[in-house]
Structure formats: C-alpha cells, structure tokens
Write a structure and sequence with these properties.
about 450 residues; 14-stranded antiparallel β-barrel; two-stranded antiparallel sheet
Amino acid sequence: MDPDLRGRGLCLFNSWQQHEVTMKTISRTAMALFLGSGVASAFAYGEPVAQHSFQDGLIACKHGNYKTALYLFEQAEREGSTRPSLYYNLGVCYYRLGRYRDARLQFSHAAIHKPLAAVSHYNIGLIEQKLTNKRQADYWFRLAANETDDANMRALAERQLPPEPENISASPHASPWIAGVNIAFGYDDNLLDPTKQAGSSKGSSFGNLLAYTSGILAGNYDNGLRLDASGYFVRYPDQAYFNMNLLQAGVTKLQHWERWRTAIGAQLEQDTLSGRDYLRTLSAHANAARELRDGLKLRLRYRYSDISSLNSLYDPLAGSQQQIKIQLEQRDAKSRMHIGYQYEINNRNDLTTTTGFTSYSPTRNMIYVNGEIRIEGPWQLGGAISYRTSHYNNPDTIVGNHNRTIRNDARWLGRVILSRDMGKNLKMLAEYSHADNHSNIAVYSYQRNVYSLGISYLF
C-alpha cells in the first residue's frame, strides 16, 4: 500500500492522513487538527529569507509537482532553513520521486522533532516496505504505533503489522537484529607495530574483513539487554608478522532515565598477532547520552579495561587502561559532525631488563573532529582529523646510554572517505589516511599513509 503524499495544500503530516485505504476511517476533525499542527510547525521558525521558497514548495507539493517542490525545499535549506517540517517535506518529495534512501534520511532528521516523530517513523516503515525489508518495516510501524497519542495514527500503523499471535510478544520498542560485513583491500606504506605504537618502516598490501552483529536479547531499546559481537581479521601478504585477528563479544544494559539514555555493560576481546596468542581484554563501560536540542546530542563515556597477555612476549603490555570521553554530535538533513575529547590512562607492566627500561604506560589526551556530508545523489564525503599527545609515565633507559628520557609523542591523524550507495544495503568506500607522529625519542617518530578500497553490506 502506498501513501498519498500530495496532501491538501500542505505536505506535512498528510502521508498517513491521505492513505488510499484508510482515509475513510479518519474523521474530518482529526484531519483538521493535524493540518493545523502542520501549519504551526511550518511557521514556528523565524527564517524570513527561506520562508518564501518553503511556501512555494508547499504550493508545488499541493499540485503534485514533486521535482519543483524538491528544488524549492532544497533552496530553502540553502537559504538557512533548519525547520523540522522542511526535513519532513524533503522526505515526502524524495519518496514520491522514488529516492527512498534519501527520503529515509530526511524523515530520520524530522523525527528528532517530537511532534513529527510518529508520522516520520511510519513513513520510514513504508520505505522499508518498498525496499522489501519486512523486519525493519515492522519495527518502524510498531514504534510509530507506540509513540503516538492519536488513535487514528496508531490504528493506521497497527494495520501494517503482522496479525496475532505473531505480534503478541513483540516488544514495542525492540530494535531489530542487525548484521553487517566490511571487506577492504589496500596498501600501508609503514606498518604500525602494535606492541610499540611505532612505525616499522615496512610496507605491504593488505586485506581485511570486519563482521558484526547486534540485537536485543531481552526487553527493549528503552529498558533492555543488548548483545554485540564482532570479528576483525587483517592479512599482510608481504609482512606476516603484522597479521591480526580480533574477536569480541559483550552485553549492555540499556536504560532510559528522563532525558538521558544510559548503557552499562561488559565486553571480552581476544586477539592474535602473527599467528600467536596476543592479548585478552575484559572491559566494563558506562555511557550516557541526551539531546541538548533538535539535532544536537551530548555523549559521555567511561571505559575500564583489564589487559592480560597470552604469550610471555607481550607481558609488558599487560595491565589496565582507563578512558573518559565527551562528545558533541550535530546532525542536519545532509550532514553530521562529531567533535570530542578523550583522556586515557595506561598502567602497564612495562619492560625492565638488566640493561634498560621501556615504558608502555602512556597518559594521553586527544581531541578530534569527524563527519560526513552528502555531496551529490548517492555519494557521501567523510573525513576525520585528530591530535593526540602521549606522555609516558616513567623514563626510558636506552642500552649504552645512561641518560633517562621520558617519552613524549604528539600525533596528527587525518582521514578522507568517499562512499557511494550501490544498491540495497550495499556501499562502496575509498579511503586515505595519513599519520604523522613526532617523538622526543627519535625511534618512535614516523609518518604513515594507508590507501584502501572496500565494500560494506548491511543484512
């Protein structure tokens, strides 16, 4: 079943009110109420330059001229409009023009605005139907039904759900299970020694594979238990010493406390390096996030890790690590940006010999910015830049040199990613990264360039 998104003079909210099957079940009173709500939302933001384009877009939408309406709504966005109703109406136009993934993104942004949440989530369900993602479609319809106070909206969403008894035990806010895989091939011109965090001056082609899954074991997204598991495997044909396997799994307790969403959990990771057992890490983490305003989110995180070596070669790396992170996330219709700070304390065994001492216990401060912007059609451009300082706790003693030097590093890391949607749940990615590490102990200074081309698929 298709929604009629043309509306009667206003795109906003009319996707479900004008549904070709259920329109007769909706009273004139209810329709007038939601049309009124749409007008209020449309004019609630003082954007005099963009308002003209927005109003012209509504007129074009009324007459079914979706290409023209899309141009005018995009013009309003270029002129500075950030009103949630603009994102919603962009979603309407993209949907009617068959650009379902673009429509999904716009409805997701509109849903941040509480009055538009239910109807936006309902429309995302319709999009998932179009993409034949039944499980995801049922999730969004169920979410729309349970977050609205309007009986007609709830009835419409519930009609899209499977009949009883399949729906009896379904959790209204349960997130569907997801799984994905990323495969990439590339070249690294200076492989990083994971034991020393220093360049090796050795280059090699590589291939890597990341597979992951996540889902709700019990309860729901607001109050439930989530399972996460992943495996990462990288191979260097020319430098087998650097081959790594990382396997991890964890459980997280999710809880919604007023305006905060919290997540507290534990994770176990076991790694191999060059075919040998390497490290085992048991971590506990606590996360909290809240919306500061529409499109702006604050995230806080603390993580404690207990690290054990699985081979005596790596005993100096055993010990503990603590991380504290604060991050701001800004999203709008076509872009997202994260800016954050991370503080890290390491208390490792370090390496003591009869001739010297090497510290493996840095205290680190890092600031970073990353983000992504849609540049044209299915193309997205992403990037990241970070600056990290590392101050090692105890002075190194070098063989043949009686001077004791505390290691201090400063690293710049930049990354550029170009991606393209290739079809249902399939994406192609090209990535380049550059690292430049300066150390007061020369052997730890390095530059590194990594080039890769890959694909990702979400099941």
